[in-house]
Amino acid sequence: MTEHPITDAPPTRESLRDWLNAPVAKSPGQARAQSIWRAAKRLGGNYAAMAGLFILIVLVGAAAFAPWLAPYGPFEQDLNRRLLPPSADHWFGTDQLGRDIYSRVLHGASITLRIALLAAAIAGPIGLLVGATAGYLGGWVDTVAMRVVDVFLAFPALILALAFVAALGAGINNAVIAIALASWPPIARLARAETLSVRKSDYIAAARLTGAGPLRIIVRHIMPICIPSVVIRVTLNMAGIILTAAGLGFLGLGAQPPMPEWGAMLATGREFMLTHWWLATMPGIAILTVSLAFNLLGDGLRDALDPRHG
Amino acid sequence: MADASNLARPSLTGRRWYRRSVATARILLTVAITMLGLITLTFFIGRVLPFDPVVAILGDDSSREAYDRVYRQLGLDRPLYEQFFTYMRDVLSFDFGRSLSSGRPVIDDITRVFPATVELALLSIFFGVAIGVPLGVAAAARQGSWIDQLIRVFALIGFSAPNFWLGLVGLAVFFAGLGWVGGPGRLSTFYQFDIEIRTGLILIDSALMQRWDIFQDAVSRLVLPVGILAYGAMAFIARMTRSFMLEQLSQEYIIAARAKGVSRTAVIWVHAFPNIAVQLVTVIALAFGFLLEGAVLTETVFAWPGLGRYMTTALLRGDMNAVLGCVIVIGLIFITLNLLCDLFYRSFDPRTR
């Protein structure tokens, strides 16, 4: 034993690969690192998922550096240069007010990203908490929670979002709230199913024997188990969230003009579709690309992390 | 086998019957509770969530008397639970109130516009299934091949593309550019007053009247919206079919059948397909539900006088009664579809008994 001291941290760079590939993990930390490493390798071998990831990295880059990348400002009008087709000066052409569409699409990336992340950041934890609590406590809490989930699932997400927006009023913040309210229930159902599969495990019983209360068990011992599948689900949902947000923008209920939100841009471009196709086409391609990227990545994540549904 | 054991112990069938009716009763109870929840949710959205429903109707600058009158008309002076019971009674008798913009009862408006959506959705689901299922099976049969990759990408794009954008591009290319299809709307204004409405489905009505010119006009206008909605449904159905089929094809009975010398086509369609058929029905019902969602935006793009456009128009006018009426109707359709699937599942899939 003295020749092989049990260490948790990888000591040197050369042995990091060996440490990650070791046939037997020597500590919980190593085991966890190994399973993440293996999943990452599986994901890396999936070219479609990597393409999705690449697009999303580009999107984040575009969102972060839009002010420096965009040749023009998103609101910069030049009425002498209205409705110009795509050219070297204006890659995606210009709109009816002479604004550069390429610059607006770039600036729109951060809006789309913010809507999607905010909605996911609200819906994910709510779904996780409701699902884990219902699954662990069982009984009437479970019944009530699941009936509520059923009611929310009785509507397509867009319809529910429309109803909430109708009540709350149009606008980007209300759109985020509406989308989040419409997308937590499937996550709750998923988290509940995961919880049911572990609630009778020995480690939960052990935690209870050491005196842990329900709250501690749910938050510290059950929610972490649900996180991988919830993350996959949320990633897969992102595409739907982006489409819903764009749909709300298109109907004039989400982000309002002159904000360069892609759905709202599409709505403006609609009037010019038959004569100046680039106005609506370019933001549409942007929406398609990003939602495709999330779908590709989500598929890959599911294959890599969740071999049961391969 | 089952018959012999039933003859030997007749009481078992009785018990099984009892168990099944209890299970069915439980499903129906769940549905009733879900509907109650649905009503509660729409009540909450319509009456509680807006800061002031009266202002939502009258606008900001209304006189004090008008405000008080509407306030009492809406029953807002009564306690919340009383309002809720009135609301529930109304909804259960399909009274969604009057549309603020058209002045007619919302339910009349909905029954008038609904057939347009049904026509769109039925045709779309038909093509979605007719194309999606074979594609999914083909992809699963040649897992990993270029065909599989192609179908996956094709389906994934259908999944990811905003259908309102596809509609706009489709109109620009196929209507304005090539002139292959008819423009927005269900019929050209030329025919609008010629048609005698019986079923509300223009294809059937025009066929009944033997007016093939109207029929042709309707078809040319249906092609694009149906094509786009069917593409979305197809993408979903093909994806699910593929994954169900893959699951079946990895089972031992398939290997056994193949080892016995059954051809690959026969194994897929005779042995594996019946086993996924029940699951597929659920998926198709789900796809139909999503079509209603897709129809909201597609109808807006195509100026299609259906439920979706009615709802979005109402939304933009702040016509809350109409919006919630649509929400309830769509919710009811969803719940009914789910219920039918559930019952279907239970009677055809022995594993769920």
Write structural notes for this entry.
The complex is a heterodimer of chains A (310) and B (353). Chain A is 71% helix and 0% strand. Chain A is built from 11 helices and no strands. Chain A is flat, with a radius of gyration of 24 Å. With 353 residues, chain B is mainly alpha-helical. Chain B has 2 domains: 23-92, no CATH class; 106-352, MetI-like (MetI-like fold), CATH 1.10.3720. Helix content of chain B is 79%, strand content 0%. In chain B, helix 1 (2-8) crosses helix 2 (10-48). Mean pLDDT of chain B is 82; it is low at 1-8. At the A-B interface, helix 5, helix 6, helix 9, helix 10 and helix 11 of A face helix 2, helix 7, helix 8, helix 13 and helix 14 of B.
Task: Note the topology.
The complex is a heterodimer of chains A (310) and B (353).
Chain A: H1 16-21, H2 28-44, H3 47-69, H4 101-137, H5 139-153, H6 157-168, H7 172-198, H8 202-209, H9 214-250, H10 262-270, H11 278-305
Helix pairs in contact in A: 2-11, 3-4, 3-11, 4-5, 4-7, 4-9, 4-11, 5-7, 6-7, 7-9, 9-10, 9-11, 10-11
Chain B: H1 2-8, H2 10-48, H3 53-58, H4 64-73, H5 80-92, H6 106-141, H7 146-160, H8 163-177, H9 189-192, H10 202-208, H11 212-249, H12 252-260, H13 264-302, H14 307-317, H15 320-348
